[in-house]
Write a structure and sequence with these properties.
- α1 (about 15-25) packs parallel to α7, α12 crosses α13 (about 255-265) and α14 (about 375-385) packs antiparallel against α15 (about 410-430).
- The chain folds into 3 domains: about 15-135 and about 275-355, ANL, N-terminal domain (Rossmann fold, 3-Layer(aba) Sandwich), CATH 3.40.50.12780; about 165-275, 3-Layer(aba) Sandwich (Rossmann fold); about 365-460, GMP Synthetase, Chain A, domain 3, CATH 3.30.300.30.
- The protein is of the alpha/beta class.
- A hairpin with a 5-residue loop joins β8 and β9 (about 290).
- The protein is built from 15 helices and 21 strands.
- The chain has a 10-stranded mixed β-sheet, with helices on both faces.
- The chain binds zinc ion.
- Zinc ion (ZN) binds next to loops.
- Zinc ion binds near residues 284, 286, 290, 344 and 346.
Amino acid sequence: MKKAPITNGDGEISALYASKMVPAYAKMDESEKAAYRRNQLLRIVRYAKAHSPLYADLYAGLDDDFKLSDLPVTTKNELKERFDDWVTDRSVTMDGIMEYIKDQNNNGKLFLGKYLVFRTSGSTGSPAVTLYDRGMIHVSNALDWERGFPTLQVRNQYFRRRCKFATVCANPGFNLGSGMLIYGKSVNIIKRFGSKLFDIFDPLPELVAELNRFSPAMFSGYPSAMTVLAKEQLAGRLHISPLLVVSCGEYLSDDSKKTLEAAFGRRPINAYLSTESGSVASECPFGHMHVNDDWVVMEPVDRENRPVATGRADKWLLTTMGNFIQPYIRYEVTDRIVYHDEGCPCGRTSPWVEVEGRTDDTLRFRGKDGEVEIIPWLIYIVLTNMPEVRSFQALLHDENRLELRIAADDRVSTFEKAKAVVDETLAKHGVRAHIYLSDTPPGPDKSGKFIHVRNALKSEPQP
Ligand SMILES: [Zn+2]
C-alpha cells in the first residue's frame, strides 16, 4: 500500500491516513494489529508528553518501553482543574472557549480555525469541555463509514439513496451530534445536501412533517427521542423507511429496541460513542458492539482501578489515539460495562462490550389532553448550556411537580434562570409544571450512578 502521511503538519491525523488505515486495520493479522496499536499509543503518549504541560508532569522520566499500566489513571476533575495545561496548543484557554461558546452560532464552527468545541455534563455530573482537532473528525468519519454499516450491501443502498441522513438531537448547545453535523455540512457537499438535523426542541407535529418530507435513509439519534417518533410511525402519522436505525448517546433499553423495530421494521443498531472518546464501539451483524481498538483503548477495571479480564466491570479507562489537541489517556469512564473477548462469528477479532450506562428517564407529564412524554435530553441540554450550573438533577414527582437540584455559586438566582428555560421548553410541548428548587444537592444514587433526569413517579404509589 502507498504510504499516507500520518499527520497533516499540525500534529493531527490526516484525512488520507484515517481513510486508509481504518479499512487496512481490518485486514491485518493479529501480530500486525498489535504492532499497529502499540504505534498508535506511542504516538499519542509522546505527543502528550511533549506538548501538554500536564502530561509532561505526569510522565516525567517515562521512556518509550512503558507499559500502558505504568501510566497514571486520570480523572475528569483532575484534568479539568488544569485544563489550560492539559491541552496541547498553548493558544487554547478555558477562558477563550467560554467566550466562544457564548455565541450559539459558533456551534459546529472551528474554534481558532482548528478545533470543534463540545460541552458535556457527563456521567459524573460535572460539566466539561472537549475539543476535537480535525484529525479526530477524520477518524470519526472513517469509522462511521467503514464500521457503521452492518453489510457492504446496506452501505451501497445508503449511497444510492444519496446518503440521506437524519439525526434527532438538540440544536442549541455544543453537543457532539449537532456540532459534527453542522461542521460536516460546511465542508462536505454530500453532507450539505444529504444530512439534516431534527431538533428535539421543535414541537412533535413539526418534526414528523419535516421527517416525512426529508425521508431519511439513515435515522439516528437519542433513543428516547427516536422512540417518541417511532410511536408516531406506529400511529400512522410518520411514514419514513430508513435502511438503518442507529441509536447513540444514551442507553438503548429493550423496550425502546422493541418499539423502534416494530415501527421501522429493522433492528436498531447500537453505537457506543461519547464526546470524550468519539466512536468507542460499532455493532456487527450479530448485535455485538466491537471496540474500535485501533483508535480507542478500553481497559475494564474495578472500583479500585484494578484490571478486570472479562465480564462485568464497574468502569473503564479510556485512551483515545486520534485526538491530539486534548489527549485522554487512561481516563476514568464511569459507565458500567460487560466486556467480552470470546470472539464472535462475524470474524472481527476485537473485544465487544455491553454497556449499562446512561439511564436518564423519559418524563411523563400530564398535559391538557392526557399524558405528554418529555425526553430527558430536552431538560439535560438547556441546563447543561447554562454556564452558572455546575451540576444538576431534575426529578419528576406526581401532579407535574418537577424538583430541581442545583449546584451553583448563587443557587437561587441560577434556579430562577433554570426555571425560566425549563418552563419555556415544557410550554412548547403543551406542559405546565410546578418547578421548585430542592434543598438536596445533586448526587449519585445508591448504586453510584449519576442520573440527571429521573421519573420519581415510578417509585411512588400511582393514583
Ligand atoms: Zn461480531
